[in-house]
């Protein structure tokens, strides 16, 4: 996940969904933390926390995850 001081990064998909990218390794996130995400940094999230908290919270909020694989 890439975050700035107060927010996680997201992508708007045709004005309908908010997409939040998640990366398998910190190095992947750091590679993409450029351009409009310059000044942001990679942050690790525990998998159990991600499944229990993130996925259940965003289920009904028109937020989708983008999961980048190795």
What structural keywords apply?
two-stranded antiparallel ribbon, three-stranded mixed sheet, alpha+beta, 5 strands, 70 residues, 2 helices, 26% strand
Describe what this molecule looks like in 3D.
The chain contains two helices and five strands; from the N terminus they run βββαβαβ. It has 70 residues and is α+β, with helices and mostly antiparallel strands. It has one domain. Strands 2-3-5 form a three-stranded mixed β-sheet, with no helix packed on it. A two-stranded antiparallel ribbon has the order 1-4. It starts with a strand and ends with a strand. This is DUF2750 domain-containing protein. It comes from Metabacillus sediminilitoris.
Task: Give the class from helix and strand content and strand pairing.
Answer: alpha+beta
Terminus-to-terminus distance: 15 Å
Mean pLDDT across every amino acid position: 76
Regions with little confidence, pLDDT below 50 for 5+ residues: none
User: Taking strands numbered 1, 2, ... along the chain, how are they ordered across the largest sheet?
Assistant: 2-3-5
Q: How many domain modules?
A: 1
Q: What sort of overall outline do the alpha carbons produce when their principal axes are compared? A: globular
InterPro entries: DUF2750
Organism: Metabacillus sediminilitoris
Protein name: DUF2750 domain-containing protein
Pfam family, one: DUF2750
């Amino acid at each position: 996940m890439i975050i700035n001081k107060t927010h996680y990064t997201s992508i708007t998909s045709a004005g309908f969904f908010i997409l939040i990218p998640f990366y398998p390794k910190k190095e992947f996130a750091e590679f993409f933390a450029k351009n409009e995400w310059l000044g942001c940094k990679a942050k690790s999230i525990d998998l159990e926390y991600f499944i229990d908290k993130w996925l259940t919270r965003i289920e009904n909020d028109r937020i989708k995850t983008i999961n980048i694989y190795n």
